[in-house]
Amino acid sequence: MSLSEANRAAWEAASPEGAGNLLPEELKKDFPLLQRTVRGGHPLVYLDSGATSQKPLRVLDAERDFYERHNAAPHRGAHLLAEEATEAYENARASIARFIGATPAEIVFTKNATEGINLIAYAMSNAATAGPEAERFRVGPGDEVVVSEMEHHANLVPWQELCRRTGATLRWFGITDDGRLDLEHLDELVNERTKIVALTHQSNVLGTVPPIELIAARAHAVGALVLLDAAQSVPHQPVDVTRLNVDFLAFSGHKMLGPTGIGVLWGRSELLEAMPPFITGGSMIEVVRMEGTTFMPPPQRFEAGVPMTAQAIGLGVACEYLAEIGMDRVHAHEEALIGYSLERLTEIPGVRIVGPGTTEARGGAVAFTVDGIHPHDVGQVLDDLGVEVRVGHHCAWPICRRFGIPATTRATFYIYNTLGDIDALADGVRQAQRFFGTV
Amino acid sequence: MQLEAMYQEVILDHYRNPHHKGLREPFEGEAHHVNPTCGDEVTLRVHLDGEGQAATVADVSYDAMGCSISQASASVMSDLIIGKSVKEAMAVGDEFLTLMQSRGQDVHPDEDLLEDAIAFAGVSKYPARIKCALLAWMAWKDATARALGETR
């Protein structure tokens, strides 16, 4: 029995529930890319799903089938293909809506989570010159926007820019030493001047899941809007928007087995109704005259131009695939992987986890440092062994500054990962230590 | 295993014991460069003796945070260019850039010109790491341009 196998057996004995929660390893067979070997014959160990996930055959087939049989521009024209394309596009919207407990009219297709967040930030700018119905979106000097120090750049830079354009003030929650959101000044940070609180639903570096309910309650008590960056939560845990008590939620399709180029902005319907558009053009209009234009109701108001139809259809199928597995099981599977990886990594001398050291209120991003070896070099050794992780600041640079480190190595998990993948990671980290002579 | 091809012993030596490290006075030009994909940073100062392209690179000092490749490259570079004229040093930089952009193809680099820097040939096979090797060189070009009053 190898060291890895012995470790796994010990963990399985100590954590029968965790081991029992793992999804069957056969799932990997649904993903053609995961059958590859890399860098001189190593089986691919893909631990970078937090950046983008791999795609099951069903999603690839759905996109191909659309192009081969039904391709046309939806919501335009009256021919058969246009009808079929429109139906497929709207069916995808319905599948995705079901997946997060929403109604289809509340689902706005965007390019990705980044665009969804920008849509809100720009709609808030545009509210300055929109009608009285947009009053509650207006932002100006004296108003405040609240984010946190653990945001992905996608949920930080758009708000910095909104504040720069409008004269509002950006404020933020700090991070505690153990990687949690620092809520000590919640009531002072979120106050009657706050227009919107934009927070991550699960940190893409630390894995932290902040107590959204508590923060949303405070935000709503002072009349502020709440937006969640759900790019790392919707793919990995059951999300029901009717129970979240937030106003907007943005996520990306490519991180949840879907294609690139498709994302979703969910918004409460009365808010979407009152919100001015971000991108304007064809198919979002009601009546166009040379003197001016009126707009469609949501979601069409926010979907100018021929949409990413095949991608939306692919994402719809990805949601159905995940729903068939069950998001509770996806979450339990990942929790088991996180627990095992925390154990396997922390037993290596010189390895430090950046983020919570337990699986409590924590998702599947495990970032760490290795004493004496820069993350770029750790990643290079892992890559040489076929283990693909992310290195760097993971588009959340302020987290590195907060912890005084240049970068981290990050492993992220999904349904197709196994305990063996984590063994390969831990063995690779030890290999890096031997190679650079730090042990 | 490909690793040894990339992490030549020369590179690891410079990484463990970097030459000319630390920021020193006097200097006429300074530049701060970052690699936005990974967060590596270098602040680099140039002290020139003389005027224009004929000036001698009297000192290169730097403070850098980053991976073995970027650290070793700063060390090797300072070894190579201190004592040369600006014109000669720029020629070495151009040759190094050609080597790094070779994608591992045989470009017959001038070994006499590049000396220890030839060890970075293996890095050129890894597109994600080329920026690491070039970080200090780009900062040096920038700092020198400032020292010569070409930019502000």
What's this entry about, in short?
The complex is a heterodimer of chains A (439) and B (152). Chain A is an alpha/beta fold.
Q: How many H/I helices of chain A?
A: 15
CATH architectural label of chain B: Alpha-Beta Complex
Structural class of chain A: alpha/beta
Beta-strand percentage of chain A? 15-25%
CATH architecture assignment name of the largest domain in chain A: 3-Layer(aba) Sandwich
For this entry, give a set of tags.
A: 439 residues; alpha/beta; Aspartate Aminotransferase, domain 1; Aspartate Aminotransferase, domain 2; 2 domains; 7-stranded mixed β-sheet; 4-stranded antiparallel β-sheet; 15 helices; 16% strand; B: 152 residues; alpha+beta; Sufe protein. Chain: A; 3-stranded antiparallel β-sheet; 6 helices; 3 strands; globular; SUF system NifU family Fe-S cluster assembly protein (chain B); iron-sulfur cluster binding (chain B)
Please outline the helices and strands.
The complex is a heterodimer of chains A (439) and B (152).
Chain A: H1 3-14, H2 16-20, E1 37-38, E2 42-43, E3 45-46, H3 57-70, H4 80-99, E4 107-110, H5 113-126, E5 144-148, H6 157-166, E6 169-173, H7 186-189, E7 194-200, H8 212-221, E8 225-229, H9 241-244, E9 248-252, E10 263-267, H10 269-274, E11 285-289, E12 292-295, H11 309-325, H12 327-346, E13 351-354, E14 365-370, H13 375-384, E15 387-388, E16 390-392, H14 397-403, E17 408-412, H15 419-435
Parallel strand pairs in A: 3-15, 5-6, 5-7, 7-8, 8-9
Antiparallel strand pairs in A: 1-2, 4-10, 9-10, 11-12, 13-14, 14-17, 16-17
Helix pairs in contact in A: 3-11, 4-11, 5-6, 12-15, 13-15
Chain B: H1 3-6, H2 9-16, E1 29-35, E2 40-49, E3 56-65, H3 68-81, H4 86-100, H5 111-114, H6 127-147
Antiparallel strand pairs in B: 1-2, 2-3
Helix pairs in contact in B: 2-3, 3-6, 4-6
